Amino acid sequence: MQELTHYLNGAHVNGTSGRFADVMNPATGEVQAKVPLASKEEVARAVAYAVEAQPAWAAVNPQRRARVLMKFVDLLNRDMDKLAEALSREHGKTLPDAAGDVQRGLEVVEYCIGAPQLLKGEYTDSAGPGIDMYSMRQPLGVTAGITPFNFPAMIPMWMFAPAIACGNAFLLKPSERDPSVPLMLAELMEEAGLPKGVLQVVNGDKEAVDAILHDPVIQSIGFVGSTPIAEYIYGTGCAQGKRVQCFGGAKNHMIVMPDADMDQAADALVGAGYGAAGERCMAISVAVPVGDETADRLIEKLVPRIEKLKVGPYTAGNDIDYGPVVTGAAKANIERLVQSGIDQGAKLVVDGRDFSLQGYEEGFFVGPHLFDHVTKDMEIYTTEIFGPVLSTVRAQSYEEALGLAMDHEYGNGTAIFTRDGDAARDFANRVNVGMIGINVPIPVPLAYHTFGGWKKSVFGDLNQHGPDAFKFYTRTKTVTSRWPSGIKEGGEFSIPVME
């Protein structure tokens, strides 16, 4: 069985803690590798390497740092198929979805190539008599990121690309469930010309996370995962004096107005609700049709589309719609939540409980589910399911539909489907959610805008990627300078006398 490593100071390094986690093949339910779980001492060793490497990297001018990222983009494109296959093998995503995971990370790297422009400071001439004032952005030093299983390529790049472009060293603690792609990314960055020790990968669990949180050298921490862990990391990290940004759970609503194109809305819901087996923080998990007639028309469109979904392993070809969920525990939790919806009175319109795939009976496959007549008090509504389950909550008015999205504790993303520009504009202006789609089901901004939710979906002041990333990974230093006047007139040769 393959034994994975950490990546420290430019080399693959075996774990020394004696602790390992199983890396599963989600399609078969078999253990395909073991990944070492770092001790506090191993994290400290990685930090020491980063401390040694960072000053010289920060001294490299931004244009030359950007050239490393340019080369990294070339290498990502060269190895796209290899990265996608490794990602699918450990996560379970289809190959096109896995390639999209890499691509959305690559786009952030492309944005970060603009570091020379993004890091420019400000200058004021003659702020006072003979006084000039200027500000400059300087790197934090050693930074760290703790990333989730559902985007093992994209989210690491969302963090380490801007951090490194700003002149920091970066310590990545990826999910232990699918660690191979992060290790591959670190290799590619060094092939692109990044000095050893600037980007390192330390695999681990809570022991490694706590070591990162309490290490006095690490200046900032980025995190993406569940809200309870986001709250823990944010609270602990801030208490240690670190700069912290944490992105948590989601429950994304899609409002469907009576004037919406129902075929367009149904197609959008199926892709956004069931793509990647629903294991996306931007998945649409709640459909909110306005009016019973709209709801009936929408359900009528959804049912045949959902029943035709192809579920299978990535090896079955690119026409597979989604694959297994990541672990047996995740599958069991989804099944528990589905049963809770039934027990609490929701109508299960499409029942995926009996789904089974011949030859893959031990895999973590979950059939698609569609609920109707879901209410706000049901667990399937309040909880992020993170699986292929779509809940329909019927609203009797636009205001009621808007209120559902606004009242939920999560505020990551939301969407409205309508032909009415006034309704769309009102929705975008009023809803207290961070990312809005208008006739767009998964409103993930492109790399040059920022990504971030509101309410209990985010903890911290700044969003991911876009201009906010360069603010997060730098400190502003302001200099006020005054030079004595008169020197330019030359030396004095006469004896000074008292006036």
Automatic annotation (TrEMBL):
Q: Which residues form the Aldehyde dehydrogenase domain?
A: 14-479
The cross-references to Pfam families, in alphabetical order and at most eight, read:
Aldedh
Database matches in InterPro entries = Ald_DH/histidinol_DH, Ald_DH_C, Ald_DH_CS_CYS, Ald_DH_N, Aldehyde_DH_dom, MeMal-semiAld_DH
Enzyme Commission no: 1.2.1.27
Key words of the record: NAD, Oxidoreductase
- Where is the secretion signal located? none
Q: Which PROSITE patterns match?
A: ALDEHYDE_DEHYDR_CYS (PS00070)
Q: Which PANTHER family match?
A: MALONATE-SEMIALDEHYDE DEHYDROGENASE (PTHR43866)
NCBIfam families named in the record: MMSDH (TIGR01722)
Q: State what protein this is by name.
A: methylmalonate-semialdehyde dehydrogenase (CoA acylating)
Q: Which organism is it from?
A: Roseobacter sinensis
